[in-house]
């Protein structure tokens, strides 16, 4: 540690023993971690839940959780100590982290995506988190802690799906499927990029909230189960240029049917199709590209926060729980119907 850094008291960290449900999540005393030469010690201010955190708990995530790992990958905090070789941040700076520990820029590789905070590297549900300096990203000043703790995973994957390989823009129509955080961010980001947005949801109330967020048109899948036809009608029979598919195989055939010639479906959702619902040949003969994305790199996250800052865009927060009630946050997140992020704050 460099000179002049404050002494800090022991904290509290939740630890995850996978495959035991909420019984596998327990709070323990956390000795103050000591940063190595390239590490940054952050005092956590807020963290938020993603679907992957439930999957890690249940053992259904592609990467197994390391027993005893501190969960959660979305978070924000203040840099309170740094290793001797750290140059990318400063004491007192408010930071978040990338999803993947070492993916800075360039193409996604299996090795880079195999190292994740909250899975096999200790994450954010703790008083302190130790970050590799390469994974640190500065937080836009205008965001609250809860909002800043909502972006790393769902915010970035929706962004990556919209800007890669070429960004959508004015003249394009984007279809969002589902109103989890991925779908909500996709609406906001697509509007920042100047596209028209059509959103699929399951109730009039959610539809109203989507419109307030910027969706130009909303189709209620409960009222219009054949929503792909409605999307085609809304696009003059042509279909949309890009779909942010936040559900998965279940809705994929409809999303493909609603896509324009040479359009793209970004398959983000991982929900499996139910029995008997597997489509025979969903890709058909339309030369639609199907691209799977794994969140994004640090460069992607920095471009996102710069663009959000320009637009003053704010993540949607559903509820905020104090750290001591983290288990309630998990319960509400997995059993309730949050519209927006579920955040845990530390005082
Ligand atoms: N690849 C990646 O890097 C990455 C990153 C983040 C998340 N993900 C995955 O992306 C998916 C979405 O994440 P999220 O956090 O937004 O999830 P979420 O909170 O679970 O939201 C999913 C939404 O899908 C809709 N939905 C649920 N069941 C449906 C059904 N049977 N038919 C049609 N729509 C249905 C619901 O919206 P309505 O009620 O409005 O229809 C629901 O709110 C998850 O599978 C997550 O694991 C992947």
Please give a quick description of this structure.
This protein is α/β, with parallel strands linked by helices and 347 residues long.
Characteristic key phrases:
Quinone Oxidoreductase, Chain A, domain 1, alpha/beta, seven-stranded mixed beta sheet, binds NADP nicotinamide-adenine-dinucleotide phosphate, 10 helices, 347 residues, Rossmann fold
N-to-C CA distance: 25 Å
Task: Estimate the strand proportion.
Answer: 25-35%
Low-confidence stretches: none
* CATH classification, class level of the largest domain: Alpha Beta
Total separate domains? 2
Give the SSE string.
EEEHEEHEEHHEHEHEHEHEEHEHE
Count of individual beta strands: 15
CATH topology of the largest domain: Quinone Oxidoreductase, Chain A, domain 1
Helicity level? 10-25%
| Sheet of most strands | 7 strands, mixed
Fourth CATH level, the homologous superfamily of the largest domain: Medium-chain alcohol dehydrogenases, catalytic domain
The outline comes out as: globular
Named at the architecture level, the CATH assignment of the largest domain is: Alpha-Beta Complex
Q: Provide the structure class.
A: alpha/beta
Radius of gyration: 20 Å
Bound molecules: NADP nicotinamide-adenine-dinucleotide phosphate
């Amino acid at each position: 540690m460099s000179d002049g850094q404050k002494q800090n008291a022991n904290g509290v960290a939740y630890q995850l023993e996978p495959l035991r449900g909420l019984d596998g999540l327990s709070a323990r005393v956390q000795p103050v971690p000591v940063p190595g030469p390239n590490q940054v010690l952050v005092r956590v201010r807020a963290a938020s839940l993603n679907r992957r955190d439930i999957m890690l708990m249940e053992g259904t995530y592609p990467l197994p959780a390391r027993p005893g790992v501190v969960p959660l990958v979305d978070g924000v905090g203040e840099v309170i100590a740094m290793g001797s070789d750290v140059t990318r941040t400063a004491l007192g700076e408010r930071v978040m982290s990338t999803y993947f520990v070492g993916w800075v820029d360039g193409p996604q590789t299996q090795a880079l995506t195999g190292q994740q905070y909250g899975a096999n590297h200790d994450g954010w549900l703790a008083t302190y988190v130790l970050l590799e300096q390469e994974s640190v990203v500065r937080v836009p000043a205008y965001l609250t802690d809860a909002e800043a703790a909502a972006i790393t995973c769902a915010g970035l994957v929706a962004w990556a799906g919209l800007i890669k390989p070429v960004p959508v823009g004015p003249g394009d129509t984007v279809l969002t499927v589902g109103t989890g955080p991925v779908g909500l961010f996709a609406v906001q980001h697509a509007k920042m990029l100047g596209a028209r947005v059509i959103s699929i949801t399951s109730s009039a109330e959610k539809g109203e909230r989507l419109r307030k967020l910027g969706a130009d048109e909303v189709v209620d899948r409960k009222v219009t189960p054949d929503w792909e036809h409605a999307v085609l009608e809304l696009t003059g029979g042509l279909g949309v240029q890009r779909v942010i598919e936040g559900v998965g195989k279940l809705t994929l055939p409809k999303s493909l049917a609603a896509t324009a010639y040479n359009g793209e479906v970004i398959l983000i959702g991982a929900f499996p199709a139910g029995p008997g619902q597997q489509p025979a040949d969903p890709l058909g003969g339309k030369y639609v590209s199907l691209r799977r994305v794994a969140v994004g790199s640090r460069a992607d996250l920095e471009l996102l926060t710069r663009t959000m800052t320009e637009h003053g865009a704010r993540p949607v927060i559903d509820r905020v729980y104090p750290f001591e009630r983290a288990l309630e946050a998990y319960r509400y997140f997995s059993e309730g119907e949050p519209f927006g992020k579920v955040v845990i704050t530390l005082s």
